[in-house]
Structures are given as C-alpha cells and as structure tokens.
Write a structure and sequence with these properties.
By secondary structure, the chain is of the alpha/beta class. It is built from 30 helices and 25 strands. The radius of gyration is 33 Å and the shape is globular.
Amino acid sequence: MGNENLDFSPGDPTAETQKGPSWGNPRWPLVGGESEDEFTQALDPTAMSIAVKEAAKTAGKALDPAAVEEAAGDSIRAMLLVRLYRVRGHLAANLDPLGLSGREVPEDLTLEWHGFAGQEDKQVYVGGVFGFEWVKVGDLFELLRRTYCGHVGLEYMHITDTEERRFLQDKFESPEDTIQFTSEGKKAILASVIRGEEYENFLGKKYVGTKRFGLDGGESMIPALEAVIKNGSQTGVREIIYGMAHRGRLNVLANVMAKPYKVIFHEFSGGSANPEDVGGSGDVKYHLGTSTDREFDGVTVHMSLVPNPSHLEAVDPVVLGKTRAQQAIRDDLSKHQQVLPVLIHGDAAFAGQGVVWECLGLSGVRGYDTGGCIHFIINNQIGFTTSPKFARNSPYPSDVAKGVQAPILHVNGDDPEAVTFACKLAVEYRQKFGRDIVIDMWCYRRFGHNEGDEPKFTQPLMYDAIKTHPKVSEVYESRLVQEGQIESGYRDELIADFTSLLEDEFQASKSYKPNEADWFAGRWSGLHKPADAEGARRNIETAVSGKLFDSLGRTLTTVPDDVTIHKTLGRVLKAKKEMFDSADGFDWATAEALAFGSLVTEGYGVRLSGQDSGRGTFSQRHAVWVDQTNEEKYIPLSTLPHGKFEVYDSTLSEYGVLGYEYGFALADPKTLVLWEAQFGDFGNGAQIMIDQFIAAGEAKWLRANGLVMLLPHGYEGQGPEHSSARLERFLQLCANDNIQVCNITTPANYFHVLRRQMLRPFRKPLIIMTPKSLLRHPMAKSSAEEFQGDHHFMRIKSDTKEIADDKVKRLVLCSGKVAYDLIEKRDEVGIDDISIVRIEQIYPFPGEPLTGRIKRMKNLEEIVWCQEEPQNNGAWTFVDRLIEDAAFAAGKNLRPIYAGREPAASPATGLAKRHQAQQEGLVSLALDLSNTGKTAKVTLSRPNNGKKA
C-alpha cells in the first residue's frame, strides 16, 4: 500500500501547523485590492497621488506635481491590472493537459489593454502588492502571469467575505514558494501516481474487456486525496466520509481507502463481497463502499466510502447527512472540525445534475450544515459522448458552486504537485472557514466511457491527442529528472516493485473468501437482521407508563412565563390540556408529540425535517412556538432530558433533503429520523432516493436504515397533486422484507408505530401515508388508555361497531381515511351485517391476523376492497392476491371485490362536485347500497368467483 508517512511539505508538521503552511506569504498583510473599500481607495486619483508622493519621498525620490500625477495614473492602471488578474486570471491558466481547449488570453489581461505597451521597464507604485512598493511593469506582469495563469487557476473574487478573500490571496500570491515540496515529498507523489496508473494497467491486462471505469488520465487525484488525509489529520480531522461515482472508484478503494487488492481481484473474478449466508442481491464492484483506518504522523483517521447506485450524484446528500450524524455523535456540531465530507464528481454530472445544487444549497443552513465539503471534480472534458460545449453554456463545470460563494481551484491534472497543493489549500480553507470549496482537475479519459467503449465515434480529434499523450507519471518523471530529484530509471523500479505486489495479491485472491459482513458494527452493535418478516414484528412493547404520559402532557401544554405565543396556538394548547385532563380525545399531533417525547426521555434522538415541519403543513404540529414579540423559538420537546429532539424547516428540496436524512439514519440507528413531505406526492421529486437507496440499499449493500417518510395522503377534493402520495409506487417496491408501508387511521396506532421503529432490535425504512382531514376528524381520536398498559401497534384495526362474527355477510377491507367515510355511511343507513376492517400496515402484509379474522366469520359471503384511489393506483393491485390467499387459508373460496374509482391517468379530479360524487359512489358500492354511484366514475369489479355484480 501507500506510504503512510508521506512528506508532502518541508519542515516539521507540528511546527507547520503552528506557524502556518510552507507556502504562506511572510510579507503579510498585503496592501491594495484586499477589499472593496481598499481597492476603491487605490483607484481614487487624489488618494493615489498622495500615496505616490509619500512613497517617493520615503524612497528619496523628488517628483514634481506633473510627475506625481503621471505616477498616480500609472499606479491606478497597474492596480487595475492586478485586480483583473485576481478576478479573471484563471481564464488564461494552463489547465488542459491535451492543449485542445483553445483558451486564449483575454484582452483585458494584456499590457496593451492597460496602456503599458512597450513600457515593461517603467517603475510603478503598487503600495505593497506582492510585497513591492515600486516595481517594474514587466516584472509585475510576469509575476501575475506566473501566479494566476500557471497550472492552478483560482476563482475567489466572487466571495463577499473579505477575510476569506485575503486568506486565499495570501496563500496564492507567495511568489517564491506557492507550490513547494521536499525531495521526499516529490518522490512520494510520483509513487502514488504510479500506483494509480499501474493498478489500472494491471486490471486491464488481467480482466480484459471488463468494465472498471478506470481513472486512466486522472491519476493525480491519488496523491491529492492522500494529502487531504494527511493535512486533515494535522488540523483536527479524525474521520473522512467520501462519496463518488464510478470513474476511478476502484482505484480510490485500493490506493486511498486501503481496501486489499486481493479482495477487489476476488470481486473481479465474480466472487461475493460478503459471506454467502448473509443474503442480499449484491451489486457491481464499482458501486460498493468500504471503511478503513489510516494513520499519518501518528494520527489515525477513519475513512468510509459510501456505496452508491449508477444514478449520477445521488450519493452526495447521503454523504452529507451521514457526516452530520457523525459530527453529532462526536459532539462536533459546533466546530465541524473532526468529520470531513469529500465528494468526488464527474465534470458533466456536476454541471448537469440538479441534486448537486440542492446539496450546495444545504451548506451553512441550520440543521444541515456540515462545516463545508471538499468537492473534487474529475474533469475529463467529456460526458459519456458529449463535449462540454454541447453540455453547458458556462466556461467551467464548477460554475454552479459560485452560487454559495465557494472558492474554485482549477488545476492541470498532468501536474500532480499542483493538484496536491490544491487539496492542501482546500483542507486548510475548509477547516478555517467551515465552507465548501471546489477543486476542478482538468484531465482526460484515456479510454471510452467504459473500457469496452469506442470514444473515436464521437471525439476523434480528442482521442488522437490522447493516444500520443504521455502518462501523468511520465510527464512528472521527466520534470523530476530535470530538477535533479531522481535518476532516470527510478520510475521503472517503482513500477516493477508495485507490479510484483499486485501479482502476489492476484494469486492470493484465488483462495480468498470473505468471512465477515461489514454490517452491524460500531454504533449498530446490538442490532441485527430480523429473523422473519412476520414474527419479528410481534411482542414489541411500545406502551408508556402513566407517570411518563402525564409528565409529557405537562411539557406539551405549559407555556413559560417569558414566552408570548399566538392566540390561536393558545386555544390549541388549551384543547390539548383538556385531552390530558379528560384522558380522552387525543388527536394525531398530540399522539405524535407523545411518541417523540417518550423516545427522547428514554435516551433516543428524534430528528424531523421537511419544508414546514416546525408548524406542520396543516398547522397541526406546533412543535415550535414562536414568540410573537421577538420571533424567538421555544421547542417544548427539546427541554426533555436524556435524548435530543430536533425539528427543522428544510430548504425547498425533496431529492437532496430526503437523501440527507437517509444518510443521517444510515449513520445513527439510535435517532428516529423522519422526513416529511409537504404533500405526499412531492416525494416524486426524490424518486431516485426512494428506488435506489431506501427500498434497495439493504439488499444491494447490506446497509440497514430506519428512516421514516411521512407522506400526507387522502382524497379531499384538493386536486391531483394534493391527494395521492402514490401509495402504489411504494408497494411495487416491496419485497424481501425491505420496507414497511402503513396507512394508519388512529392517533394511538401512529404513536405505537413510531415507538416500535426504535424499540425493536432491527431497522427498516417506514413509509407512512399520513392524513390531512383525519388530523382533526372527530372519529380519529384515541383515549389515554390506548397509549398505556399492554397496548401496541395494530397491523389491522377492528370495526368501531361491535358486530357478531357469525352475523357478518360482507367484509369491507380498506386503509386510511375512507374507513371513516364507510363507517359513517353504514351506521347512518343502519346496516348490521357488514364489518369494516382497516389494514393499517399494508407491507409486510398482515396475512396471519387477517386469516384469523376471516376464519371467525362463518357466514361470510363477500370480501370487498374499498379505496379512494383510482383502480390503477392505490393498494388494490398489491393486496388483491394477498387477501385472496388469506381467505383461502381461512377456508373461504372468495376473491376480493374492488370498489373504488375507475382507472385514471390523473390521480384525482380537481373539481369539488365531481370528487364528492365519486366519493359517495365508491362508498355506496362498497356497502352494496342500491341506486347509487351511477353518475360517478367508480367501479364495482367482481372476479369470476361464481357471483354476479
């Protein structure tokens, strides 16, 4: 593996940390252009004339008024030249290893444009810029070119914070040692590059034609990432969490993460990454993650690479959420110094994928801040087959990062020293300012999108250039030989030694067998995979004691003397207090608060986020009380001891925030993590997170997760987008006991399912179709007794009306709000032979208790499934056969009858009268009422079971 004692910089590391980095400018502070005020002053003719006159006097020069005026004009033009190089010098930087980008020097970066044509020897006053009081125009120009137009181009003048600009300017404008490494450091960088190159070369020879999405052409990233670890460890970093896509992933796993080569070779040969008895579907090798410890200078840094799907940038928010959780676990949320997120991007994806901006938008936001992320772009200058000029209309893929004022370091990937310097600077900036920073490494993709692809179909000229372009190590070796750092042939020795190591590892891979799954360790210790889907969910004691129940009631209804609440909230709290006094009438929001409060009191964390989660989309929650006199916030549940309660109104994002919360839950199984959609189908915007992570993450990567999704759902005439949470989509994803899907009808049952999520010894994602009208429905109430004693979560709920089992002829099964519509209509009409049973947990389907219920109904003739959703939506197509199986197991040869809306392209009508007619029609059909539903778009669908419609 790599040298854990890499010396990338001169001097003692401890001393360097104390006195500043080796490339720092000893002539700080600089003068001129450091802030808007100072730059404005530098361009003021009167002020400049005074400054020139004083400077000339100090230097022993005598200037007459005309000379002073001329010198002041020269100084102003010189300062404008400096300013433009600071702002736009990156546009003329030497960044493209292939030399194909056609980057011409902008006109305003020439001496001619500034009126200095042919005046290179003219002395101008610059007031301390680059440490000079007076300097020749030609020397200043050459210094600006060397500083801002070399192999590193810096974009930083868009940053409004003066201190940050001064910091970056200081690190960059040190003329004699901006990028400097010791002889041993240079050799270590070369060795890292060679490991990256020869690893890819070895894979290409041993596994011909196999996809590996190699790093070929971007190997400078390997020593640069090692610099992140080394320099991070010196500035307080103890954990690094990486996220990246395919390109270069296997190289990072091996040469940065220290995953044994033999293990990767085993996987290349078709072997499993985990023991065979663990189960799961597995995933391709370039999606897998790992974790390891590496030591630099006596400091151990824990590193993890988060597994990800093929979906570009989807892992980004997961990394950020996991980082936040680890910072909380390490008590590092105030400084963000110990846990560092590093995201490695492709150039086309960084510019094209919206989730990148959603993640950038989270930086610095309360509840989501991670103290800055290092973004490393592997800029291949191509996206699959698309050239940059056809993929975006901006000069760089990194331009989107300017929206959060992140500094951007563009760097030539053929100069590994420059790339390593950029990473060192990025670490120091992030640790000092807690802000995002971007490294845009220009390189190339030596082969096609994958190793079996033919890139010359679409980019023939680029690949003609690549074919003759030397490897990074060859370019760097030549430079080191010229510098006298190494002898010719040194590179060949390193290649031979490393290739020999790989060959030994390759032979060892043939007998390698994984003996342990990387699953339930660390904070997950004590948790495990459930033995079976049915039995593992029984006998979970979720009720609370009367003492705790009453104590929580006081917390939820007591307003501190120094808090002035809204008058309407006062009425809400008064009603809530009456619930506790009467021990009855508990609504949905109160039950939820009791669940949260009880878990916090028992030592668990609770983290709830969404776009309106503090108040609640429907003004139902009021987890946060805002003082009406000063807008200060009071959060009753945060005053409870032992655990921690957090509630955040998120950015207006679904994809990014849901991924963030999934990542948080991935790291911390001892916190109940909930994401709430403003309306249920807004989760559509996060469908990739649902499909690839929440539903499939455990099967693919052996990563359990207890995230809860709260999705408001229910047909109340509010139109297509505010009715359906797309229940059918979640049910279609259900298999292998992967997730839980619930549509709950009582506050107490909601209370128990939330507590069950944390109190059992395993974690599964929980999808809840939360109500809208049921939040205040007079029938959707619970008594105090239902939260205590031996009560627990009920997967099916009995009828509210006692009907003798032998009297039931028709059983109507349903879930959610429609149950109360059915109950109200049936009781209004006076029917006494129809039982209405609610399926509270749709998956895993409660087949066993449902079978027992049907078995007791000796005279049952019909089973109906009633739903509000159209026939092609909702739960019908999922529960149809499951209900039939339960009936068959109960000795009933019955198939369920469908009663509900007809198939529809749109989830719901937006017309109130039509909605009402449909709702009345489907209720009437389910209850078999005559002369109803004939004008409404509803269906009574009977299978061929010997009965007629």
